[in-house]
Design goal:
31% of the residues lie in helices and 36% in strands. By secondary structure, it is an alpha/beta fold. It has a single domain, classed as Trna Endonuclease, Chain: A, domain 1 (3-Layer(aba) Sandwich). It is globular and about 40 Å long. The two termini are 21 Å apart. 23% of the residues are buried.
Length: 114
């Protein structure tokens, strides 16, 4: 969608071990690394989302060293918990993801990621 070339379940290996990124979306010089989360409504999610955002940010920094391009870490939870940025990682709720892609450069500049 939106002109991105997408690879699913992308696995890479570096000096720290093996990692997987759910989706790697590339368009021109933009590389967006997406990690999806499907937590249930009964589970406390905000602290877990923050931990996952920090882990995903570190994973993307490792991936950047391999591909030698800046990667944008994005976490896509199914439920909107009203948290949109943490630990260098954008958090885009599933129901807003299409709009995010449509205006991706605006959001990246808003969060100073471009």
């Amino acid at each position: 969608m939106h002109g991105f070339e997408v690879e699913r379940n992308f696995v890479f290996k570096d000096d720290h071990g093996k990692c997987e990124i759910d989706l790697v979306a590339k368009r021109f010089d933009l590389v967006i690394c997406i990690d999806t989360k499907f937590y249930s409504a009964k589970r406390y999610r905000v602290s877990q989302l923050k931990k996952e955002a920090e882990k995903h940010f570190k994973r993307c920094k490792r991936f950047e060293k391999i591909i030698k391009k800046k990667c944008i870490p994005v976490l896509v939870p199914f439920i909107d918990d009203k948290i949109y940025f943490h630990g260098g990682c954008l958090i885009v709720p599933f129901n807003s993801f299409n709009e995010f892609l449509f205006n991706v450069h605006y959001y990246l500049m808003s969060f100073q990621l471009l």
